[in-house]
């Protein structure tokens, strides 16, 4: 007999007023692309067991997604291949539906006479629009489960929070209730036979995406790789995280952001493992602050501010000071293409952009410097915001993510920050320069390592 799966009901929202009925339970996997440590999948398992019905997992493949290039689809597809394998071991069919989700998913659920549909959570407005369209067409119950955050986004706060200091006590008050381990997915009523595997190569040919930005070599996606990277970090680099995380030469950061973005790793699981590691308290707390407090602050911003991807979404004080200095002299103004090709006068900035181009990742400290210099060298603050977001979403494996939107909005637009000393171009937005970088790490070494990897074939 399979064990009962217990899930905190505060993690679950009803997206329509329909009732559960007899029929297959369908988990619409989207943001959380993993089998283990996945509350949405576990809730779908729970529903299937309660109703005495089989579980199916469906992934909707839109022809394009917010401009994501082939680099991102390659990472996602290779991870989904592993998801399919793991699901088949559990006896769960995995189906990919190509087309607009608001059209394909309702048709599929009607064809399958589904009894329940379960979706995972995303604060992004495109995905929320898909769910609204689906909810209006389903004739069965439709649930959303926050499997991406430790504390469910809607429970953490009922409003957009001003800063980390305002959301931190709210999250910490709930941490003990939600930062737990996970049960294993168990099912009682799966079919004896499964449909043929997904034809992934054929699916890839259907995509309408930029194929010029190739996959990152040497970076293995998927649940297994994510878990291995987490273990390597927790048992090794975490012990020096607090002191060395802002040094891009130190190798002290986790490298987990692509896996967290694609949902190949649970932030709750990663935080749980880090919190009970043998690293010192100061190192554990520094990492949990980033993975829990700062990350869920970003989710809060995108959930409550639909202008999260626009200069218009930044705080009014920041807009005011930036516009007051919009006409200030700039030492250089670069086009989006010059930024993209790392063709500025600053070797440090060019090295950071080269790292992004080649590895799909910028070290966190360098990403702040990178974005602030785009502000300094763009014709207008709004243009700088758009350029930084374009480059991040086009090349970073964790692009089109709340952390990315908030990273740009913090660096350029003062989001979750406060006014600082007034200066040209920046106004009272926090300033960064290369001298500050030199005080934190070996800048020549970073430049040499990044530009030494440069490949003219990129362009």
TrEMBL record:
One BP annotation, GO: photoreactive repair
SUPFAM superfamilies in UniProt: Cryptochrome/photolyase FAD-binding domain, Cryptochrome/photolyase, N-terminal domain
GO molecular function terms attached to this record: deoxyribodipyrimidine photo-lyase activity; DNA binding
InterPro entries: Crypto/Photolyase_FAD-like_sf, Crypto/Photolyase_N_sf, DNA_photolyase_2, DNA_photolyase_N, Photolyase_Class-2, Rossmann-like_a/b/a_fold
Cofactor(s) needed: FAD; (6R)-5,10-methylene-5,6,7,8-tetrahydrofolate
Protein name: Deoxyribodipyrimidine photo-lyase
Its EC number(s): 4.1.99.3
Keyword annotations from UniProtKB, A to Z: DNA damage, DNA repair, DNA-binding, FAD, Flavoprotein, Lyase
Top enzyme class: lyase
Catalytic activity: cyclobutadipyrimidine (in DNA) = 2 pyrimidine residues (in DNA)
């Amino acid at each position: 007999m399979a064990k009962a799966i217990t899930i905190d009901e505060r993690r679950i929202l009803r997206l329509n007023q329909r009732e559960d009925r007899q029929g297959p339970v369908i988990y619409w996997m989207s943001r959380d692309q993993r089998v283990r440590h996945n509350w949405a999948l576990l809730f779908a398992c729970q529903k299937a067991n309660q109703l005495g019905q089989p579980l199916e997992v469906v992934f909707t493949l839109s022809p394009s997604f917010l401009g994501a290039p082939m680099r991102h689809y390659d990472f996602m597809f290779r991870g989904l291949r592993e998801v399919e394998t793991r699901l088949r071991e559990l006896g769960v069919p995995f189906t990919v539906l190509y087309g607009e989700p608001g059209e394909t998913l309702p048709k599929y659920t009607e064809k399958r006479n589904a009894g329940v549909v379960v979706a995972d959570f995303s604060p992004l407005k495109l995905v929320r629009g898909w769910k609204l369209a689906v909810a209006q067409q389903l004739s069965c119950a439709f649930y959303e489960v926050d499997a991406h955050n430790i504390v469910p986004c809607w429970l953490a706060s009922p409003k957009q929070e001003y800063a980390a200091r305002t959301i931190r006590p709210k999250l910490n008050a709930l941490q003990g209730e939600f930062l737990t381990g996970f049960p294993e997915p168990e099912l009682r009523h799966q079919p004896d036979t499964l449909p043929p595997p997904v034809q992934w190569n054929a699916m890839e040919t259907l995509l309408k995406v930029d194929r010029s930005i190739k996959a990152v070599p040497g970076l293995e996606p998927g649940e297994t790789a994510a878990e291995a990277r987490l273990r390597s970090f927790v048992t090794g680099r975490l012990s020096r995280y607090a002191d060395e995380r802002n040094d891009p030469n130190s190798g002290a950061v986790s490298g987990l952001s692509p896996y967290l973005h694609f949902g190949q790793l649970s932030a709750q699981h990663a935080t749980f493992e880090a919190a009970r590691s043998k690293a010192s308290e100061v190192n554990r707390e520094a990492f949990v602050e980033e993975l829990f407090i700062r990350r869920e602050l970003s989710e809060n911003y995108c959930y409550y501010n639909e202008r999260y991807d626009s200069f218009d979404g930044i705080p009014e004080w920041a807009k005011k000071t930036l516009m007051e200095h919009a006409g200030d002299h700039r030492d250089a103004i670069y086009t989006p293409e010059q930024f993209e090709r790392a063709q500025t006068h600053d070797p440090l900035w060019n090295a950071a952009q080269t790292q992004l181009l080649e590895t799909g990742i910028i070290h966190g400290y360098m990403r702040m410097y990178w974005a602030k210099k785009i502000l300094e060298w763009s014709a207008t603050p709004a243009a700088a915001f758009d350029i930084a977001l374009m480059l991040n979403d086009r090349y970073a494996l964790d692009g089109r993510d709340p952390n990315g939107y908030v990273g740009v909005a913090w660096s350029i637009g003062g989001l979750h920050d406060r006014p600082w000393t007034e200066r040209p171009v920046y106004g009272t937005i926090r300033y960064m320069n290369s001298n500050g970088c030199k005080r934190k790490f070996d800048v020549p070494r970073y430049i040499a390592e990044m530009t030494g990897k440069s490949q003219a074939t990129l362009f």
